[in-house]
Amino acid sequence: MNIKRTLLNTALVLVTAATLAACSQDSEDKVEDAMSSAGDTVEQTMDDAGDALNSAGNSMEDTMTDAGNAVEDTCEDIKEGTNAKDTDC
User: Fold this and answer.
1) What is the pTM of this model?
2) 19-45: pLDDT as tens digits
3) Where is the signal peptide (predicted)?
4) pLDDT tens across 53-89, in order?
5) Distance CA 35, CA 18 (A)
């Protein structure tokens, strides 16, 4: 939701910058500069969003690994407590 809002705000800035630049004498250069700047902002926003998603994925992977290890440790503790011959889980 936050990414969508950021992209919509960036689009609004693009339109506003293009409109204001088109009203001046050097409109062609200003529009080009405004569009380039806005494009850079969108690119940075997308990079940041990708980094955030990658970080979240890594965090989820670490959490799942820790959970799996905890289940395995608990299983082995139970088997050891019951004097099972095979304590490997």
Assistant:
1) 0.51
2) 666 665 566 677 777 788 888 888 888
3) 1-21
4) 999 999 999 999 999 999 999 999 999 889 888 877 8
5) 7
Q: What gap in Å lies between CA 46 and CA 6, rounded to an integer?
A: 10
Apex CA 51: angle with CA 50 and CA 56, to 5°?
100
Crossing angle between the packed helical segments 2-22 and 27-81, to the nearest 10 degrees: 170
Nearest to 36 by CA among 51, 18, 20: 18
Torsion of CA 18, 20, 24, 28, to 10 degrees: -10
Dig out the tokens for 62 from the structure: 């670490």
